[in-house]
Amino acid sequence: MPNTEVSVNTPVPHKAERKPDPCIVVIFGASGDLTKRKLLPALYHLEQHGLLPHDFAVVGVARRDLSATFAPDMKDGIVKGGGVEESDPKLAPFMERVQYFATNFDDDEGFLKLKAYLADLDTKFGTKANRLFYLAVAPEFFADIIQRLGKAGMATPAEGASNWVRVIIEKPFGTDLKSARKLNDEVNAVLSENQIFRIDHYLGKETVQNILVFRFANGIFEPVWNRNYIDHVEITAAESIGIEGRGPFYEQAGALRDVLQNHIMEVLSFVAMEPPDSFAAEAVRAEKLKVWRSIEPIPVTDTVRGQYGPGTVDGKPAVGYREEERVNPESQQATFAAAKLHIENWRWAGVPFYVRAAKRLAKRVTEVTIVFKQPPLHLFKTEAGSSDIGPNLISMRIQPDEGIALRFGAKVPGPTTNVAPVNMDFSYAKAFGKSSANGYERLLLDAMLGDATLFAHRDGVEATWALYTPILEAWAKEKIDLPNYAAGTWGPKASDDLLAADGRAWTEL
Ligand code: BG6
């Protein structure tokens, strides 16, 4: 399809940014992959852009004694994963502020020692007793760590003191409605809701935030953003990678818990919500919640699960899910999950939202496709080749190749009135240059600033679990024939059938 590029005005420089208060970021589970691959590079990118406070420190906490290797290892992550030059002048002074503390997560004594250690760092680095705890640990430790922080007197500021304590909790937040409620209760018993930052890194992605800008900062899209003009919406989070050695985790999680219930539902809420009256956390969360609560219970017949078998990915042979390390050879776990959702409100009634998330698909692409209603084409029917014009589409490419395309029909040059679809294409990289942001920059910064707009709220987490828990229960009861798609394809046939039953098909990505 021919492409027409959108010309872009010179990018506007960032507005003056707020700087967080002096603080220590304390990462529990710091020996894990996330800390090295994402968190430290993100913190360093903030430092490079002058967005970290001058008085600042990072403390990695884990069970093993890694005091000798932690800082060099994190530096390696910043340089290799974060694309930073080793000679970058800010790097050496930053690394001096990267510290390590070993303790078991069930050791009360260890927490008291950590408390004293952090107080010493306050004196050394001027961090004023402000703490941002980051729980990058397996979910079974969330509640315990928070409880021990409370017991050691670290979860709240001292009485009369003006310092702050905040806690970022990684996903998955629960494994179903019951466990999410229990976890919320346990966490809320120690921390007030405004101290809790439940992270979903998709909300840190520029392209996800841009959905709101695209809709609400432009005059031309919002008037047609409803059931009068839109036929249906597709949201896809496709990964070509498999489970990458995370067998035990994935055996518990599966595609529905891992991506559909959280990342996809966050994106869906931005696509579907009403304009909030401000970007304050309460205003945005209230609108998101209305969307999730307006979704009709999902019949299991409107869902599809799949599991990859052996296949070919990027020209190389790939094993099936059941042959992956530490996976049950008869596993019923879904590596593909899809559903048809109905948002029963005035804007969306009658417009299905088809959502899917999966591992080992044909390519890595996360995209939202808004498919508009077909106009009457009678006028063009007589011309050969004009019958397959296809509807107008807005494709929001969340990643990779971030951008937005608008598909419309154009006259093919020539003596007859033939119409062909063309794309008007906006590319982030071309317009603004390549961003090194991995999503965590923005979210870490917001948490340090105390801004919870891009974090999940208790009610939201429970609303999405309420939708999907019956599906998980129904899937658990009924065994199906798995694997049912080959690695490197677009998933099981049932996924195509889900749309075909409505006379539709997934848009080619
Ligand atoms: C994580 C999931 O939350 O998101 C992973 O646990 C998944 O399984 C990842 O690969 C996808 O994130 P991104 O940013 O690469 O789309």
Topology:
Elements: E1 3-5, E2 23-28, H1 33-48, E3 56-62, H2 70-81, H3 91-95, E4 98-102, H4 108-125, E5 131-135, H5 142-151, E6 165-169, H6 177-190, E7 196-198, H7 206-216, E8 230-238, H8 247-272, H9 281-293, E9 303-306, E10 308-309, E11 311-313, E12 316-318, E13 336-342, E14 352-358, E15 365-372, H10 378-381, E16 393-399, E17 403-411, E18 419-427, H11 428-432, H12 440-449, H13 458-477, E19 485-486, H14 493-500
Parallel strand pairs: 1-18, 2-3, 2-5, 3-4, 5-6, 6-7, 8-14, 10-19
Antiparallel strand pairs: 8-15, 9-13, 11-12, 13-14, 15-16, 16-17, 17-18
Helix pairs in contact: 1-2, 1-12, 5-6, 6-13, 8-9, 8-13, 9-13
Bound molecules: 6-O-phosphono-beta-D-glucopyranose.
Summarize the structure in words.
- The chain is of the alpha/beta class and 509 residues long.
- The chain has helices at 33-48, 70-81, 91-95, 108-125, 142-151, 177-190, 206-216, 247-272, 281-293, 378-381, 428-432, 440-449, 458-477, 493-500; strands spanning 3-5, 23-28, 56-62, 98-102, 131-135, 165-169, 196-198, 230-238, 303-306, 308-309, 311-313, 316-318, 336-342, 352-358, 365-372, 393-399, 403-411, 419-427, 485-486.
- The chain has a 9-stranded mixed β-sheet, with helices on both faces.
- Helix 1 (33-48) crosses helix 12 (440-449), helix 6 runs antiparallel to helix 13 (458-477) and helix 8 packs across helix 13 (458-477).
- The longest helix is centred in the middle third of the chain and has 26 residues, at 247-272.
- The model is unreliable at 9-13 (pLDDT under 50).
- 6-O-phosphono-beta-D-glucopyranose is lined by residues 171, 239, 258-259, 366.
